[in-house]
Amino acid sequence: MDTLINDLLNIVGKTGVLLGDDIALRSVDWFTKAPCEAKAIIRPQSTEQLSQVMAKCHAAKQPVVTHGGLTGIVHGAVASPNELVVSLELMNQIEAIDAIGSTMQVQAGVTLQRVQEAAQEIDMQFALDLGARGSCTIGGNIATNAGGIRVIRYGMMRQQVLGLEVVLSDGTVVSSMNTMLKNNAGYDLKQMFIGSEGTLGIVTRAVLRLHPNMPSEQTALVAVPSFDALTSLLKLASKDLANSLSAFEALWNNHYALMTSATTKHTPLLATDSPFYAIIETLGSDEKQEAEAFARVLEKALEAGLITDAVLANSSTQRQGIWDVREDIETLVHELNPMFSYDISLPITHMNEYVTALEGKLNAQWPETGTMVVFGHLGDGNLHIMITVRDASPHSRREVEELVYGSLVKYNGSISAEHGVGLEKRDYLALSRSPEEIALMKRMKLALDPKNLLNPGKILA
Amino acid sequence: MDTLINDLLNIVGKTGVLLGDDIALRSVDWFTKAPCEAKAIIRPQSTEQLSQVMAKCHAAKQPVVTHGGLTGIVHGAVASPNELVVSLELMNQIEAIDAIGSTMQVQAGVTLQRVQEAAQEIDMQFALDLGARGSCTIGGNIATNAGGIRVIRYGMMRQQVLGLEVVLSDGTVVSSMNTMLKNNAGYDLKQMFIGSEGTLGIVTRAVLRLHPNMPSEQTALVAVPSFDALTSLLKLASKDLANSLSAFEALWNNHYALMTSATTKHTPLLATDSPFYAIIETLGSDEKQEAEAFARVLEKALEAGLITDAVLANSSTQRQGIWDVREDIETLVHELNPMFSYDISLPITHMNEYVTALEGKLNAQWPETGTMVVFGHLGDGNLHIMITVRDASPHSRREVEELVYGSLVKYNGSISAEHGVGLEKRDYLALSRSPEEIALMKRMKLALDPKNLLNPGKILA
User: Hey, what domains does chain B have and what are their CATH numbers?
Assistant: First the structure.
């Protein structure tokens, strides 16, 4: 065994080190299930242990890849045989809850779902929500600045974090566990680490912001006759449901029709010939009031011709049925095999033009095999685009990437709305960021991780 | 004239340079009206001009202090005779408004109030609000991460900024004018500059997030019998008005009684013998619904003994009357002359203990002259404390500072909730931040401004 591993074994103990077959047993890619190739997986049980681990790695110039719940899809967790993995899986405690201050203090390895449940237990809510909730961890949510379905109301993960503890590449522990909504005593250091994908520091603990519980949930699936009607509907809902609108998801016809086709497990709740669909959701505290306001908006939209049909969920089963169509990625993976997945953002006004042009180019280049589906968080300017050309070769992948990302440039769009960059989008970063921005990112990286040990090669080449 | 000034004159033209008497005419301190002492005030008219100015200053190792609306109160705008001031006052345009994307693109020198009004004109709102709205600028709001009265609903300035353009100390322009709610394409660079008080870069333009307009505004002033009742009232309002609660301001008896005493211009709307008062405000889209919900909460609070009396504003004049007592700082300055002003945050659960202990110590040390008033944004954990000992000597000031800040340490409180650090609180930074945090701040400063030219000596020694 190499000396470093032996040193680390002395720090974290036997249960803290995985070697050999145990490494390849875990996959680093949710889509491809590619096995982990790291030389070892180190599992510290405390910040102090991790600090010592990083001090040793720093001295040995050992690069490290941090693992959370492994639900990321931009290859941010890929580790090569010369790299060590640090997994936060044994640091998964909820340490404290303050109902008056509306905060929760947790270790980074706790899952999103456990945090959500712990908040519910004291009649509050943790506002971040996304499909991978059962597996993804708070540390991963912070490292990637996770988004999800309620950003329009509560913001991304960045807005849910009040305090942070990180271990720097040399083992220094920076504890910045602020619990207050307001704290302007110097630079807000946590902001640098949120969304930096493990390249600037390793998140070990956090203070999370809780929100009041919202017992009243209204959900509808509506059919929308045009893209203009879709943006007008968003405007109407944003205005008339301003305080309570918590999700506004758009589904292009190609998504809804595929997801509810005969070969899938979903039955269509609405006819499948509408150009667009939307899932609208509100969260509130007063069931009667919320239901009335919600129904009024749907009526208004129907009268104005912004929607042509609607299903209003009147049970949690129906609500789940509506969301299942949106959240079921497995069916997409199966139907669009082999599938390329994209997560972009651009100004809402340009979305339809962008999507139509992209579809045109895809069909021109792959007239037989090109298929795409589009859905996403319209209110956030965020679209998910899934494409297959029935060929997973690197060459085809690159050609599709160039179509998807290349067409974004003229709209000042982003190659990554919420998934991050990782390895997958690294080569396209310059399409969304200027040379000055990338130079500044590199300056930050150099200042914080001068030996380039933390998730090296991710985000920045 | 020195060569550098001459070079800068060639860049910004004659109207762009203020010299001699024009410099001392403007004060750098809202409280003391102390005159500016800089060697010149440079007023660029474009980002390009500022970029050239900074390139020259960088070559000449010329330190620079950035000025916005000069409403800050931590001496962040103080400039010594060897420093140049860069004022953004001529860069005050609103460049674009996107009603569908809900964004506004502005130059840094525009006032907060003009941004608020421009948003209203398209039936939207800009959510940051604070007393200095007519003078403070968006650039200053960004540089200080301004807070104000609606943080509980909309967050601080940080949450209102989608994109940013900054000029670095060497003149490099970093344009990161993102317009989307979600953009995870690499590090979110703007976060570093927000709240850095002009020490890392000069903000020149921004993309601001707009929110739907909220035509229905409910405001009440209530009398609260105890601190426990105050936190229970906050909890009740946060829960039952979860979506619409936009302000929850607490006034200690010492504040309310002083502000409505015979020598001031305010008449008390409620008897002045209650231990605490609160101003509660909601913003919503449906007047009838909001008014009903608001009245229900006040009834509930009255029944539960959380409040003993209430005035509900039924006109904008009454609403203004309630807010005037809270926002009238001039009267405080007059009544508590010479006044020391503090802006701290700490966990809500410890607030009463902290304030009581502080008042005890103040009265013990200055039995004849010590007077303090307390008010602030309870929901944010943020208190403003105004103190006089009828003596403005540096010695007395320091003794009072030590009382106020020293007592915060055991609660992990912050010496600055929303005003920033500037020069005024610099020596106390270590009370709110660990050596590791301060070391990391210095590392950031060194990485971004290696010659220490931008607002040198502010925040960090």
Answer: 3-89 (3.30.43.10), 94-212 (3.30.465.10), 216-330 (3.30.70.2190), 336-420+427-447 (3.30.70.2740)
